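Ticket closed. Logging final result for HUTU hydratase.
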Amino acid sequence: LTVLNAGRRYLKAEDLSGKVFVTSGLGGMSGAQAKAAVIAGCVGIIAEVDEAALLKRHKQGWLMEISNNLDHCIARLRDARKNKIALSLGYHGNVVDLWERLVHELDTTGELLVDLGSDQTSCHNSFSGGYYPVQLGFEEAKQLLSTNPGKFRTLVQESLKRQVAAINRLADKGMFFWDYGNAFLLEAQRAGADVEKKGANKTEFRYPSYVQHIMG
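Final structure:
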């Protein structure tokens, strides 16, 4: 319902075939995102750093494909988008790399390849393993978390700023992004990312929350 309503409200579209939804997280709460994309009829690209979560959702049948190669992900995205095929593709990697690759495609081809975007990493727990920084691989990041949590925190905040910078660039060209109630925008703001709503008070963000703006 969130994906469908986001399409209705922000894309003015009842039919989401050929539309692309990019997000992250295939764990407990977030695992249904892959299934939701296919039910809604769109192309869903979901990034997840933990291979176990990807394999679990694939085994369940909620996730159609898995790839750790961004070139392959972009090629599959383009094909499914062009042919209006419903697809859920799990990218085994960091969502920041995915967002930055989409910016690269925009800069080099002029194409905006994503229509809807969100995030379901556990940012309410971002410094204790709910969000993994793009600068390190999954296992390396887990090790740093246990040996140097202060450094881990710094890398997470740098990663959040990079993620928001990429999202902002795509949103400026017409992608619609929303917060999934996971404290992503709050933690990004605390990290110094540009997420404040211009001309509003500091508690308002430039992107809507799914609770008030989409489900409400």
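The chain has ten helices and six strands. No further action required.
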